[in-house]
């Protein structure tokens, strides 16, 4: 850029700042209103129209001097000065400013038509004024402008049928010429008004929809129960936050806006954050990730981030929805730990379940097998040849048909809350087997939901009891022998003792000795028999324990 361009640009900037300072109240409308944009068009017309109007006025002044006709110069200078007054006056209201500007150029248009004829610049001014009126004023002013332009052309044709066009080629005379010009101007002006009005209406609807969408977004943003914010993807500075964010994180709205997104992140996470933000500036794809944030009180929380890229006023911003999942993660960890403890408990219970000496079968309320251990098939026998248990199978499929009714009665008693116990004997190929059964109700929330069937091999216990009973029979026999059989010879010996001590004759003495010998021999036989019985009774049985 050379020095001349720099000076010109600097001058234009100062001029724009000066004019904007005079017209600032004109731009106070709501941007979502069509009236705001009409005002902006009018503002632009005032800002750039004045210097451009000087360019248009200069040839008229020159032509006025060259032809020695001051009328054109006076008209151009008056119009330029009026434009300047309307632009720089600080007292004029906006609507009055618009009407004065439109009214200022109609005398110029009339003079130019008179001076240059129907084919001169005056016609273009009339058409242009209709277009400008449509752009900056309500549409009914535009239709009045079309009628006013037509009236001007008709009036000139009637009042000056031969006097127009003194500075240019003589216009075509006759009634057909002004009718043609008037009708064509009316047609073009009317079409322009309709089209511009149609565009402005659609633009107004678009702006209204945009305003409604903006209000809806703002409401969703502000009233969202979850923290939301906007931050600049280039500077990482917070641009806006909602009430939920200030409430949840503890920072005020102003404190948030003075921070960057990195200020609420752990320092170790910021490098990855910067890379993610920069990569997303290029891709623009919404993403979801997990992060850690600090609250104002220093608490570190886990959050799930849902984010989208937005372009606002030429800047790429990131809209973020943050969901605090700290409690969820804590609960998940606790659940995982509880599941691990449960798994270990189940493993321990399973080990006990499998290592117990009893066979165990669990059935549900529909008498289907839920679980069983390895010893169930060995010790739980409902028929002569046991089957292998299968989960989900009906327990009655393992029970002999002859025992169905009895077993069903036992299950009903257990399902009613009673623990049922009984012993059953089975004949094996080489021996007898005794099994002790226990049917216990299984409760879930104080309701019987199944039955636990246990079976234990009690054959050694039954054998032991039998031997004890046999031993008791021997003891009772020995006791009877002692109390009855042994007593007789002892009584005879006791009766012979006085005869041996004081015999009256030798014959009595010899007879006593003979009877004593017989009694002693009888007693010896009895004692031998008792000793034999005692030996049998002394063979105590031993209990053999099974795994």
UniProtKB/TrEMBL annotation:
Q: Which SMART domains match?
A: PAC (SM00086), PAS (SM00091)
Q: What would you give as a GO molecular function for this chain, any one? A: phosphorelay sensor kinase activity
What GO biological process terms does the UniProt entry carry, in alphabetical order? regulation of DNA-templated transcription
Q: Which residues form the signal peptide?
A: none
The membrane spanning regions, by residue number, are 41-65, 77-96, 108-127, 139-160, 180-200
Question: PAS domain: which residues?
Answer: 213-284
Q: Tell whether Ubl conjugation is among the UniProt keywords.
A: no
The record's listing under Pfam families reads:
MASE11, PAS, PAS_9
Q: What keywords appear on the UniProt entry?
A: Membrane, Transmembrane, Transmembrane helix
Protein name in UniProt: PAS domain S-box protein
Q: Which organism is it from?
A: Mucilaginibacter rubeus
């Amino acid at each position: 850029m050379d020095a001349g361009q720099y000076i010109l640009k600097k001058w234009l900037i100062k001029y724009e700042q000066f004019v904007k300072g005079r017209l600032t109240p004109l731009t106070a409308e709501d941007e979502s209103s069509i009236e705001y944009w009409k005002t902006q068009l009018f503002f632009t017309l005032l800002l750039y129209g004045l210097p451009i109007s000087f360019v248009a006025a200069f040839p008229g002044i020159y032509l006025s001097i060259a032809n020695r006709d001051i009328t054109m110069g006076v008209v151009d200078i008056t119009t330029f000065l009026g434009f300047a007054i309307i632009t720089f006056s600080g007292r004029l209201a906006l609507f009055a400013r618009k009407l004065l500007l439109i009214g200022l150029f109609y005398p110029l248009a009339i003079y130019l038509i008179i001076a240059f004829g129907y084919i001169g610049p005056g016609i273009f001014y009339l058409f242009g004024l209709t277009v400008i009126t449509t752009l900056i004023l309500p549409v009914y002013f535009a239709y009045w402008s079309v009628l006013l332009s037509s009236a001007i052309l008709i009036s000139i044709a009637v009042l000056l049928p031969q006097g127009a066009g003194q500075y240019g080629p003589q216009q075509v005379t006759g009634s057909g010429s002004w009718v043609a010009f008037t009708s064509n101007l009316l047609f073009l002006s009317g079409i322009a008004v309709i089209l511009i009005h149609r565009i402005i209406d659609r633009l107004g609807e678009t702006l209204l929809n945009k305003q409604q969408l903006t209000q809806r977004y703002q409401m969703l943003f502000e009233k969202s129960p979850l923290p939301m914010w906007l931050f600049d993807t280039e500077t990482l500075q917070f641009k806006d936050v909602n009430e939920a964010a200030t409430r949840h994180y503890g920072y005020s709205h102003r404190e948030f806006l003075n921070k960057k997104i990195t200020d609420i992140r752990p320092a170790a996470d910021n490098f990855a954050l910067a890379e993610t933000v920069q990569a997303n500036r290029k891709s623009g794809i919404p993403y979801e990730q997990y992060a850690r944030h600090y609250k104002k009180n220093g608490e570190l929380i886990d959050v799930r981030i849902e984010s989208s890229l937005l372009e606002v006023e030429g800047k790429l911003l990131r809209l973020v929805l943050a969901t605090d999942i700290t409690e969820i993660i804590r609960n998940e960890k606790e659940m995982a730990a509880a599941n691990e403890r449960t798994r270990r408990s189940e493993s321990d219970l399973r080990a006990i379940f499998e290592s117990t000496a009893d066979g165990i079968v669990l059935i549900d309320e529909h008498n289907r097998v839920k679980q069983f251990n390895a010893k169930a098939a060995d010790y739980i026998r409902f028929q002569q040849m046991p089957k292998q248990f299968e989960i989900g199978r009906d327990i009655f499929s393992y029970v002999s048909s002859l025992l169905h009714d009895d077993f069903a009665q036992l299950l009903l008693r257990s399902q009613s809350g009673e623990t049922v116990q009984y012993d059953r004997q089975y004949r094996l190929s080489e021996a007898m087997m005794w099994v002790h059964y226990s049917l216990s109700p299984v409760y879930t929330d104080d309701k019987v939901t199944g039955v636990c069937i246990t079976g234990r091999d009690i054959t050694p216990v039954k054998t032991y009891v039998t031997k004890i009973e046999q031993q008791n029979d021997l003891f009772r026999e020995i006791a009877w022998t002692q109390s009855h059989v042994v007593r007789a010879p002892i009584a005879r010996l006791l009766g012979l003792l006085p005869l041996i001590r004081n015999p009256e004759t030798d014959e009595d003495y010899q007879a006593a000795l003979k009877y004593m010998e017989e009694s002693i021999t009888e007693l010896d036989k009895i004692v031998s028999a008792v000793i034999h019985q005692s030996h049998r009774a002394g063979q105590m049985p031993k209990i053999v324990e099974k795994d």
